[in-house]
Design a protein that fits this description.
Elements lengths: L2 E8 L2 H6 L5 E9 L2 E8 L7 H18 L5 H18 L11 E6 L3 E7 L2 E7 L6 E7 L15 H7 L4 E9 L2 E11 L6 E6 L9 E7 L11 H8 L9 H16 L7 E8 L5
């Protein structure tokens, strides 16, 4: 197995001060000898027990990705939602407890696929010295479409928050470049997520893609840092052995607290990295 993975999450200043639990959760796993996946979720602060919902959503996504015979995002998300509803009913939780985002990614020898249902950030890591590229997904009125809106009639609740179709913004940038590109998509309620598919070697980028990092939107809310700076810090690995992302996150948090208050919101990340460094 040449693709290694690691994941970690940490409570933010706001929840720490309020004495409430972290609402971020994340996990990684393998699909085959040369394919791995990562999944991440961020609970909605105005929902119910969404710290539990985020964990259940990650577990449901991990199960769907582990068992999937094909990497069709619509089918994977459909299976994820079925598992999530089963978990919710078994634990007698309310639909509002499940209000959380879903990000997942798969990396194999040829292709990188990233699916975002809700909001968050993901970054592409390249061979050689090509700068890391990041994509920040956000929704109008800071009210993203969560997978749980498809449960028990909550879709109507989302429609009350938004006109239809709803604008979704994707900001694309590089960690060493202050110039960003902004794209707007108009999304109908009920979508199965926004999917990005990249050939690891192709004409789109000058060098091969060797890794991907998923982040909750906590990376956009670190006191004293821009999103590009946070993404750059959290994708700069001295080695990729063991808990390489956990070490990187812990070191960044130490440095961030010296500069300011650190992450204001919970922060989570998951990384898939091909140790061959070339294709």
């Amino acid at each position: 197995m040449t693709i290694v993975s690691d994941h970690a999450f940490h409570i933010g200043e706001q929840h720490l001060r309020q004495g409430t639990p972290s609402q971020d959760y994340t996990a990684t796993g393998t699909r085959s000898e040369n394919a791995a996946f990562a999944t991440l979720s961020d609970g909605c602060s105005s929902g119910g027990a969404t710290d539990i919902g985020a964990r259940l959503l990650v577990l449901a996504t991990r199960r769907a990705l582990s068992e999937a015979s094909t990497l069709n995002p619509t089918l994977i998300n459909r299976e994820r939602d079925l598992y999530l509803e089963t978990y919710r009913r078994t634990l007698e939780l309310a639909p509002s407890d499940m209000l959380a985002t879903s990000l997942w990614a798969t990396l194999d020898s040829d292709t990188l696929t990233v699916n975002v249902t809700g909001d968050g950030v993901f970054a592409l890591i390249f061979a050689d010295d090509t700068p890391v590229h990041f994509y920040e997904v956000s929704w109008d009125k800071n009210t993203p479409y969560y997978p749980a809106y498809r449960l028990s009639g909550l879709n109507e609740q989302f429609k009350q928050l938004h006109d239809s179709p709803t604008p979704l913004t994707v900001i694309r940038g590089q960690v060493d470049n202050p110039i960003y590109t902004e794209d707007t998509y108009y999304i109908e309620p009920g979508l199965q997520g926004l999917t990005f598919t990249f050939a690891r070697v192709g004409e789109m980028f000058p060098t091969p893609i060797i890794g991907v990092a998923l982040f909750s939107d906590g990376v956009t809310q670190v006191d004293g840092y821009t999103t590009a700076e946070v993404v750059g810090e959290l994708t700069h690995f001295k080695s990729t052995s063991g808990q390489f992302f956990t070490r990187r996150l812990n070191r960044f948090l130490q440095d961030a607290r010296k500069r300011g208050r650190g992450p204001l919101d919970d922060i989570a990340g998951a990384v898939l990295y091909d140790e061959r460094n070339e294709l």
